[in-house]
Amino acid sequence: MAKHMDSFVVVSKIQLGPGDFVLLWHDCWMDHTNTPLANTCGRLMSCAKDSLLSVQEALNTTELTDLFHLPLSAQAYDELMHFG
Fold this sequence. Notes:
Elements: H1 5-11, H2 37-40, H3 42-46, H4 55-59, H5 74-83
């Protein structure tokens, strides 16, 4: 069963509810793309304090800078600006 997981993930769509089990960087949770943020914002993710952060945890963060090791590189900052 585990060997078919990648095929299932490609054709499945995550419906974001509370976001507590959806991974911010590794799951395809954004409506306009079927690509995880880890693929599109790799430099930004490399600065993340927690690469297994849930969407819910990210949304509940009051200070965005708390999610990242600072300072961000210019490339990571650009990815952050395009993401937000």
